[in-house]
Design brief:
Arc Repressor Mutant, subunit A; alpha+beta; 66% helix
Length: 129
């Protein structure tokens, strides 16, 4: 999923220098250089053209920027979805458990009526048996 080096990558782009990115991220400039170096080594390309007046993106850096933004958006969406599913299941279980506790358990027991709540993860719903 998400690679934290991308935060550093975007901070360098936004600030135009490793030093300003380091200040924004509460890191040392050498830590920023190390993260960008590790990302460049991992990809096998230079992402920035370094000059005395700052940095600019190479064509590979431009490509990574556009695709990494989509990846970060997808990562955020996946995390929201996972939290929503978890929250929905928990609230549904609470609601069904509460409804069952309000019903007459004696009557269900004596009539042979049985209720079971089974999560159906494939469809994101519950079966009541």
């Amino acid at each position: 999923m998400y690679d934290p080096k991308l935060d550093t990558f975007f901070s360098v782009i936004t600030n135009g220098s490793f030093t300003k990115a380091a200040a924004e991220l509460y890191m040392t400039p050498s830590a920023v250089l190390h993260q960008i170096g590790a990302l460049e080594k991992e990809l096998g390309v230079n992402l920035f053209d370094r000059t005395p007046r700052g940095v600019s993106l190479t064509k590979e850096g431009i490509y990574l920027k556009s695709h990494a933004q989509m990846m970060l958006q997808m990562d955020a969406e996946i995390r929201r979805g996972i939290r929503a599913i978890s929250t929905d299941e928990d609230s549904m279980i609470f609601l069904l458990t509460r409804l069952l506790s309000l019903s007459s358990r004696k009557r269900c027991f004596h009539t042979g009526f049985f209720i079971a709540i089974v999560p159906n993860h494939l469809y994101g719903a519950f079966w009541i048996l």
